[in-house]
Design brief:
The complex is a heterodimer of chains A (about 140) and B (about 400). Chain A is mainly beta. Chain A folds into two domains: about 50 residues, no CATH class; about 80 residues, OB fold (Dihydrolipoamide Acetyltransferase, E2P) (Beta Barrel), CATH 2.40.50. Chain A contains one helix and eight strands. Chain A has a five-stranded antiparallel beta sheet. A three-stranded antiparallel beta sheet of chain A has the order 2-1-3, covered by helices on one side. In chain A, a hairpin with a 5-residue loop joins strand 7 and strand 8. The radius of gyration of chain A is 18 Å and the shape is globular. The termini of chain A are far apart. Chain B has one domain: Thiolase/Chalcone synthase (Peroxisomal Thiolase, Chain A, domain 1), CATH 3.40.47. The model of chain B has no long low-confidence stretch (mean pLDDT about 95). Classes of the chains: A mainly beta (about 140), B alpha/beta (about 400). Chains A and B meet through strand 4, strand 5, strand 6 and strand 8 of A and helix 5, helix 6 and strand 5 of B.
């Protein structure tokens, strides 16, 4: 293995999710270009992030259902300091926290909307960006 | 204080006291390990109490980072450790540890509990690396890091932005917290930031995660801090004036592992802890003479003042203006310079400063005739803790 001081450092890698037994269907859904959310099989409430038990009725049975892509801005930030080298070239980038129609929130980058136009309640739509063969990440665009 | 029925008094009220405090120099750059800083501060706290290391029979070290019970036994020669506990609540850990320690000494499980922090936040791993290793951050690591949200500055910024949009809070309010905190830091000899800060300098500092600029963010610094909690009836015989724990509580928010899914971004664990702590203490917010408020960000102070009941929801911005939170104001805050200007030892420096204030040993930053004070912890994306201390001797 070469450790010569002249070698270029490797490009920083994007941090990727490690799906769990609970969350795998959510990530599978994103890869297929769909928002698939966990719902309680008994009381039917949607929950996110995925977990084994419904906190409302304590049922351990759940189903995965496709949810609408529409949502409204709950809040946002504009990330200037990257905190991780991978994001350095993208900064500044907007990350919007969005109330989805299904009743859960999704936090994801918001593209194509100027910072000065952002408002609580503004309509947005979830979109999908494949970043590896296995992983697709969500982002938002104006609705 | 209003007269109360004896039977209504909380069993823990004033049963425990802060008997010793100790801290290292707060710096940016050290060759010492986190453990060494933690032990150095611990020795100072033990000496301040007039105790020997062998008198310590309970340890609640900040975790992760620094030492564990085994390190304290090995280094301090503790002969009979009766309690070893971790409180994994991030910035809410230290004040929550006061509750654990108070329960331990009030029940006779322990005589003297050592709470301590050792941190190499500047010379060691930085915040975005540290947090991804916390088990409590597993959801953030899976769902938020991949979309570019790593650090508390980013995760809390969305709450700050929402407060601004809903209530009209401004970065001028944020700046006031930063500027006043710096003024206080300059009065304390042991601080990282010792030069004055103006509102203009705050507004011109580089943007980190909008709306947070550099001077809205707490320091990444090196240092150690320690506190000893003893039973009040025993602490009376120790070296320093008695400072008792009147009330103490921790609180956990809904959706504790993800701010994103929290029903109200601006309502967190402190909202549950505050009424319990005030109830235990038997005092109201207006009776607080001095407050040390966990200041990981300027906005966090504003938000906590609302949840503590010092002002109504949404009014925290105007509340901090016009000298109210400065020395000489109605409610002096962070009289040592806080995490924003003194140093980041996860808020144990706030407990130390409040103890000094109530001992009337706070030097140029002394709040005149301070009798009752309050200290908070906030962290781990929304855990909260609060203690109300009193000068009892």
């Amino acid at each position: 293995m070469s450790t010569a001081p002249t070698s270029t450092p490797p490009a920083p890698e994007r941090p990727l999710p490690t799906p769990t037994r609970e969350s795998q269907p959510y990530w599978d859904g994103l890869r297929e270009g769909r928002l698939i959310l966990q719902h309680c099989a008994k009381c039917e409430k949607a929950r996110h992030y995925p977990r084994p038990i419904c906190p409302h009725c304590f049922s351990m049975e759940s189903t995965w259902r496709e949810a609408p892509l529409a949502g409204r801005i709950h809040s946002w930030t504009v990330c200037h300091h990257p905190f991780n080298f991978f994001f350095k070239s993208m900064a500044p980038y907007v990350v919007a926290l969005v109330d989805m129609e299904a009743g859960v929130r999704v936090n994801a980058p918001l593209r194509g909307m100027a910072e000065g136009t952002l408002k609580i309640g503004a309509p947005v739509r979830l979109a999908f960006e494949p970043v590896t063969k296995d992983v697709t990440l969500p982002y938002f665009v104006a609705a | 204080m209003a007269a109360e029925d004896e039977s209504m008094v909380h069993a823990l009220r004033e049963k425990a006291a802060i008997s010793g405090i100790g801290e290292t120099a707060y710096t940016r750059g050290t060759t010492q390990s986190g453990l060494a800083l933690q032990l150095e501060a611990s020795l100072r706290a033990i000496d301040d109490a007039g105790l020997s290391p062998r008198d310590i029979d309970g340890v609640v070290p900040y975790f992760p980072g620094g030492g564990i019970a085994e390190d304290f036994i090995a280094n301090l020669g503790l002969p009979d450790l009766a309690l070893s506990a971790f409180i994994p609540m991030g910035g809410a850990t230290c004040v929550a540890a006061l509750q654990t320690a108070a329960m331990a000494v009030a029940t006779g499980v322990c005589r003297n509990v050592l709470i301590s922090v050792g941190r190499t936040g500047y010379s060691g791993a930085r915040v975005s690396t540290r947090l991804q290793q916390f088990p409590q951050f597993a959801l953030a690591a899976e769902f938020e890091a991949p979309i570019g949200m790593f650090a508390p500055a980013q995760l809390y910024a969305q709450g700050a932005r929402r407060h601004m949009e809903l209530y009209g809070t401004t970065t001028r309010h944020f700046a006031e917290v930063a500027v006043v905190t710096r003024q206080h830091a300059i009065l304390n000899g042991n601080v990282v930031m010792n030069k004055p800060l103006t509102v203009e300098e705050h507004h011109a500092s580089r943007m980190i995660a909008d709306p947070f600029r550099l001077f809205d963010c707490s320091l990444e610094s090196d240092g150690g801090a320690a506190v000893i909690v003893s039973a009040s009836d025993r602490a009376r015989d120790l070296k320093k004036p008695l400072v008792t724990i009147m009330g103490v509580a921790e609180g956990h928010p809904e959706s504790p592992a993800s701010i994103a899914q929290r029903p109200d971004l601006l309502e967190f664990g402190l909202a549950k802890a505050a009424p319990r702590a005030f109830g235990m203490a038997g005092v109201a917010p207006k009776e607080i003479d001095v407050a040390e408020i966990y200041d990981c960000f300027t906005f966090t102070v504003i938000n906590q003042l609302e949840l503590l009941g010092f002002c109504k929801k949404g009014e925290g911005g105007p509340f901090v203006m016009d000298g109210r939170i400065a020395l000489g104001g109605d409610l002096p805050i962070n009289t040592h310079g806080g995490l924003l200007s003194q140093g980041h030892v996860v808020g144990l420096n706030h407990v130390i400063e409040l103890t000094r204030q109530l001992r009337r040993d706070a030097g140029k930053a002394q709040v005149k005739d301070a009798e009752v004070g309050l200290v908070t912890g906030y962290g781990d994306m929304g855990d909260g803790s609060v203690a109300i201390l009193r000068r009892a001797a």
